[in-house]
Amino acid sequence: MRLLLLGCTGFVGKELVPALLKEGHELCIISRKNINNLKINIPLDKFKFLKIDLSKKQNWSNENLLSNLKDSDGIINLIGEPIADKKWTDIQKEEIKKSRINTTKFLMETLKKSRINPKVIVNGSAIGFYGTSLTQEFNENSQSGKDFLANLCNKWEEVANGKPFFSRLVIFRIGIVLEAEGGALGKMLPVFKIGLGGPIGDGNQWMSWIHRSDLCGLIIKALVDKQFSGVYNAVAPEPVLMKYFSKTLGRCLKRPDLLPVPGSILKLLLGDGAKLVLDGQKVISIKLQEKVYKFKYPLLEKAIYASTKN
Ligand SMILES: NC(=O)c1ccc[n+]([C@@H]2O[C@H](COP(=O)([O-])OP(=O)(O)OC[C@H]3O[C@@H](n4cnc5c(N)ncnc54)[C@H](OP(=O)(O)O)[C@@H]3O)[C@@H](O)[C@H]2O)c1
């Protein structure tokens, strides 16, 4: 397939791009960065590249972008300002929101205005859709929550649903993506490696995770398998409590799992953004049964072990 990749230059994109090339797809990658600053370990002549900031509406009339949109069989849209890198000031919250909602809205408006009907659009969302809870279990049929991230994901999915009529839309509500070089595990690893790691908060909050290879596997399958349609929780079958996650990480690294890291430290760093980590959410998928997708890493220990073996 000819694929247009939006938001695929980050942590997920780093594995997704080579995996898509391996499947024989032709790629056009869009980024705000210069091509030489992409952190993707593949030769630059293996894909097309456009440097465009898609969060700005005026950039959607770029001729090059329009001609690549017209040529695309599929679009993967994972654009989003990171949610756990900076303190959630009002300005940062606006950026987190705008980077997802506006770009997705501009994408759908442009496709419809230019009468472009890609066969498939894979759009990101997150398990933050459900809000946090220490006790409830959420699946694809559960209602959305009421906090900032829940409202954001709800709106993000609503604008994604403004897709062209004939395009198949697959939305992944992505869980905590695991791999050593980024995301939550990337942040916890250095502390654990020096033997000072421990659960964050009281450890009784749920972590609904997915290994990065499985997220990429799901996206790749959803592109070609026409049965994929609508919303899926991109999470491994067994969510775990933070205290179990921390113990497993310590065991895999042969390091101690020490005292809990006080939630107040995370609140200092992330402000309201700490709530997601400290309260957690237990999310399962009732749509990703084994016949739909076979997880490479269904269990946490193997997922962590695979992520930390180098
Ligand atoms: N990683 C996780 O654990 C996780 C969990 C749930 C959901 N997700 C969702 O999955 C998607 C990809 O995750 P990731 O971990 O790969 O994220 P990432 O490493 O932060 O990459 C984000 C991507 O979005 C683009 N981007 C970032 N901020 C932007 C902004 N303000 N305006 C326009 N473009 C912007 C970046 O493109 P440039 O090349 O232009 O910088 C990059 O390609 C995100 O939407 C995220 O919300 C991730």
From TrEMBL:
Domain DUF1731 stretches: 261-304
Superkingdom field: Bacteria
Span of domain NAD-dependent epimerase/dehydratase: 4-144
Keyword Oxidoreductase: no
Keywords: Cell cycle, Cell division
UniProt KW Cell division keyword: yes
Any one biological process term the GO annotation gives: cell division
A Pfam family reported for this protein in Swiss-Prot or TrEMBL: Epimerase
Family according to the record: Belongs to the NAD(P)-dependent epimerase/dehydratase family. SDR39U1 subfamily.
Name this polypeptide is given: Putative cell division inhibitor
